[in-house]
Amino acid sequence: MGYREAFKIALQSLWANKLRSILTLIGVVIGVSSVIAVITLTNGVNKYVATKVYGYGADVFTISKESPVIFSYEEWQKFQKRKKITYDDFQSVDKLCKSCVSTGALLNATGKVAHQNHSSDNTDIRGWTWNMPQISNLNVVQGRSFIPADDQYATRVAIIGYDIVDKLLPNQNPIGQEIRVDGVPYTVIGVGERQGETLGQSQDNYVSVPLEAFQHTYGYNQSLTIYVKAGAVGPQLDLATDEVRALMRSRRHDALGAEDSFEVSTNQTFVGLWKSISSTFLFVVIGIASISLVVGGIVIMNIMLVSVTERTREIGVRKALGARYQDILLQFVIEAGAMSLLGGFIGILAGAGVAKLVTVLIGFPSDIALWSVLVAIIVSGGIGVFFGVYPARQAARLDPIVALRSEL
């Protein structure tokens, strides 16, 4: 018997027992769909993090007092003992770094923005040097960006996000309008492009003002974050990083051999950290989902054993007509594999559908990885074959005389 005929007979057997086949597939469907959904969501977040979450390109790195990610109270205490990154530090890096294409500085606060009878709470207030929109890859789609004079004279002008436009300045031209940021008046000169949500958090609820104007309002005691654009990744980025590190260590009088009293973070630092965390989470979920696959395989084996018992007489007739050991074995292995493979296809569609539904409902990014689909198909088919071998061997070993005596 050829493979084509064996496959046809296997599908006919599955179709003849539709309800039993569907119930048998549930374990495989749940396992595969869980894995596909998690991989799709994780892959989407990894890509999103790599391109957007941290707001700057691969050739940009930051200098800050403390690490953006703190894992313990001891680490937090260590960072608090460090000296602040000052405006003089920023100016030193800006003037002396030969490998740096451009440098900028950032301060943050959370405040209230108001215009006439409208207001927005928990808005991200950013104090930026004039070139930070360019370093942060923020395109100003209306009006203009900052210019050096805005920094120099602490001009009370602002670039706002679309959340501020939609809530405070609907149905009107926002350029030239006056808004109050924590009670201080600013004139809107630009609107940043719409960035949407990241992990359910809007990225458009912000107001950016010149750094000097920010410090006039919020004080000069905060620690700056310095942004440095190297111009290229690889050797150029490494050269700029080493030069800035040497400048900062010299300014802060870090002892020879002692660790830096500041943090240097690149895009890859964040992406690598996130991927490490997400990979651990992914492996845990895959491990849990694998239990469903094993259970599904056991159910398939059980159902196939029942099928062998039900079709004992059929097997006897086929053997009496000349069917060989390998013919019977092939038929039942293909039947188990086809059943599991069908469950795999349904699981892939269900998992991808769930991931896309999550994206639509809460904005959680997703991206279907082709390798995960291929792995799911191979694994689901392999499970059916693995757990179908034993029932198939039981069927193939039946004595045709004993099988023919079986009651229908």
Description of the molecule:
There is one protein chain. The chain has helices at residues 3-16, 18-53, 73-80, 87-96, 132-135, 148-152, 162-168, 211-218, 235-252, 267-310, 312-320, 325-362, 370-396, 400-404; strands at 60-64, 102-115, 118-128, 140-143, 157-160, 178-181, 184-192, 197-198, 201-202, 206-210, 225-229, 263-266. It has 408 residues and is an alpha+beta fold. The chain has two domains: 3-51 and 272-404, no CATH class; 102-229, no CATH class. The chain has a six-stranded mixed β-barrel. A two-stranded antiparallel sheet has the order 8-9.
Helix/strand layout:
Layout: H1 3-16, H2 18-53, E1 60-64, H3 73-80, H4 87-96, E2 102-115, E3 118-128, H5 132-135, E4 140-143, H6 148-152, E5 157-160, H7 162-168, E6 178-181, E7 184-192, E8 197-198, E9 201-202, E10 206-210, H8 211-218, E11 225-229, H9 235-252, E12 263-266, H10 267-310, H11 312-320, H12 325-362, H13 370-396, H14 400-404
Parallel strand pairs: 3-10, 5-7
Antiparallel strand pairs: 1-11, 1-12, 2-3, 2-6, 2-11, 4-7, 5-10, 6-7, 8-9
Helix pairs in contact: 1-12, 2-10, 2-12, 2-13, 4-9, 10-12, 10-13, 12-13
